Amino acid sequence: MLYWDYAAAAPPYEEVVQTMEQVMRQHFANPSSLHRAGAEADKLIKRAREVCAAALGVQPQEIVFTSGATESNNLAIKGAALQYQGRGRHIITTELEHPSVYESCLQLQQLGWEITFIAPDSSGVVEPSRVAAAVRPDTVLVSVMHVNNEIGTVQPLREIGRQVKAVNRRTLFHVDGVQGYGKLETRLKEWQADLYSLSAHKIRGPRGTGILYVREGVTLFPLLTGGSQEMGNRAGTENVPNIVATAKAVRMSGERRQEFTRRITPLKKQLEDYISGIPELVLNSSGDGAPHIVHFSYPGMKGEVMARKLEELGMAVATRSACSSRLAEPSRVLLSIRRDRAAALGGIRISLGDSHTKQEVQQLEQALLAAVQSLKIAEGGVK
Q1: Contact 192, 161 (CB under 8 A)
Q2: What's the whole-model pTM score?
Q3: Residue-by-residue DSSP string for 132-150
Q4: Among 86, 151, 165, 252, which residue's CB has the most CB atoms within a 10 Å radius?
Q5: Exposed, middle or buried, 52 (CB in 10 Å: 0-12/13-18/19+)?
Q6: Given strand 293-297, what is the order of strands in its sheet?
Q7: 332 contacts 271 by C-beta, under 8 angstroms
Q8: CB 209 within 8 A of CB 246
Q9: Secondary structure (3-state) at 197
Q10: Residue 198 three-state SS
């Protein structure tokens, strides 16, 4: 079985696994304890914070460790909303966001907040001027993802941040960076980002750990209380093995980013060119998107049917974001870029990893063609 779902979860680096095992065996003490074993565990967290901060070009005290990007996004959005509701009760986001951002905003909407959802163009790009035009004196937060987790579109964060801050300097700018880090340049200061979310298991780190960058001077209302861990942003005993392993994954992914892009970009182009030549398929990703995500639809054929057929042929692919893959509804992202319902129900996401080769992509291409031919021949297909 060839695995083509790195955007959902990437296999951890061997060094990450070794680090986790070592820390679990040798540093099991609670880092809040006053004895020597606790102090040593606390030192490991501080060092991990320094490593992550250096990779992102920020200060160690601006790094908050969480249980994953879902928590990071929830803390960024709800924490900012609750902390700064005296400034207003208006938030801006886009129609493309990951469910952890989109549904956090919907929850706040149920509590009386006004949410403005900005529509992208047909390629999935959000126009910065449209975001800026929606900013008001009572806009507390703008949240825009770096790379779309389904179709791989890259958002113009530098220009969005510049225009938002030009309209209202006090409006916070949150970036969901889950699919961007380790694949594209990350420039938090240049983007004027106040908050930035990461997930370890997307960058070959451990599952169950995330990062939230909180710019110095920004205060968040904590969603978890009961202790003073993580500078008061998140109560709970820190997961020392995961945190240390996450720092290693952040460092390694950052250092290998350019090599990753150099190797994977031509493989993406090869695959997209091949898909474009199959009449039954419609390409949804674009060549100027992120280097690791290819997305297409088989209009009229449910995505899970195509995915199962490809799995029979030895290829593990996704239908959409892993958080939404079991839903029967059409993809919200595809509808937002003006795909019809048939195409939005038939989406397939292929996400490349650093271990993939040209020969493996050719095997995937052969499986794609065989799957399409098989589903066409099947009596009436499965519509």
Answers
A1: yes
A2: 0.94
A3: HHH--TTEEEEEEESB-TT
A4: 151
A5: buried
A6: 282-283, 293-297, 347-351
A7: no
A8: yes
A9: strand
A10: strand
The contacts of residue 243 (CB under 8 Å, 6+ apart) are 44, 45, 48, 65, 209
CA dist 22 and 241 (Å) reads 8
Exactly one of 323, 335, 342, 369 is catalytic; name it.
323
**How far apart are the C-alpha atoms of 154 and 290, rounded to whole Å?**
6
Closest among 110, 120, 115, 121 to 134, alpha carbons compared: 115
Phi/psi at 317 (nearest 5 deg)? Answer: -125, 175
> What are 240's two structure tokens?
């020392």
What is the 3-state composition of the chain as percent helix, strand, coil, each rounded to the nearest 5? 45, 15, 40
Measured in whole angstroms, the distance separating CA 322 from the mean position of its chain's CA atoms is 11
**Orientation angle between helical segments 240-255 and 36-56, nearest 10 degrees:** 30
For residue 321, what pLDDT is reported? 53
With the C-alpha atoms ordered 91, 94, 98, 99, is the resulting torsion angle positive or negative?
Answer: positive
Q: Residue 325 corresponds to which tokens in the numbers above?
A: 């893959």
- Averaged over successive runs of 10 residues, the pLDDT of the chain (383 residues) comes to 97 97 95 94 97 98 98 98 97 97 98 98 96 98 98 98 98 98 97 98 97 98 92 93 98 97 96 96 93 96 95 94 61 95 95 96 98 82 44
Query: What confidence score (pLDDT) does residue 381 get?
Result: 44
H/E stretch holding 269:
helix 257-276
Residue 123 and residue 306: Cα distance in Å, rounded? 23
